[in-house]
Amino acid sequence: MKKNILLTIVVLFAFLFSIAATVVSLKNYDSNIVSRKLKEGYIPANSQVVKVIRDIREYITGILHLNQIIAENKRLKEELNKLKTDKITIEEIKSENIKLKELLGLKEQIGVAASFEIARVVQRAQEAWLSFFIIDKGEKDGVKKNMVVINNQGLIGYIVDTGTNWAKVVTLLDPDFSASAMVVRTREIGVVRGSVNLLSKRLCELRYISKDSKIKINDIVITSGMGEIFPKGIAIGRVVQIKNDRFELTKNILIEPLADIENVEYVMVIKQVKDINLSVGVK
Questions:
Q1: Does domain 108-272 have CATH number 3.10.450.40?
Q2: What global pTM score does this model have?
């Protein structure tokens, strides 16, 4: 509305200006002729002035039209960005639902006697020489120190510290992690440990295995059940490298975790592990 009023004022001003210019241009004409023409209500229009008026009107109309196009373009871009955001949100929700369903599917594997808590990872270690993360469940949810943490792929780690609504999980890649383990095929027992030197490679090591061991590449390693924290049968990882140590007394075996620890988003905290089946991740 304001734009139309402005256009009208400009055109009216230009028209009045043209009349004034025409009158001035006729001041040398015969006064009787001028008087007669004025009485007749007619003053010859100056063609150049008319052209200027037309050009001004077209210019202003063009500006208004351009502003409309710019506004429409901005609106369409905003709608497009919203559609993209909505699509990303939908895909994220779908991905989250899949991960949660996979964890809930562990209930049948673990058994009806299991007591567990599903938690979301909310913070990760910033130090390059450590491997831990914080979850959004804590003491108010019954989460305590030394509880085992898994997902549908296998062992993740265990709880080392808790707060009212959070808990700290040390993963099996951390240098402070250790767990008694067993090679499924050969039934040999060793200890899986994290290592600073292997952390960047996302690997851990299996120690105290005899140099005469028959372990092969791709053998699966699980928790042995020896010790006070980890129950037997949780999948740890797959053998990816075998070497004799420098004294030729034992083998140095590298394990690749079956769980994608670096990108894990949801985990399951096992709150009660006695007399239940935890053959998680073992095919």
A1: no
A2: 0.63
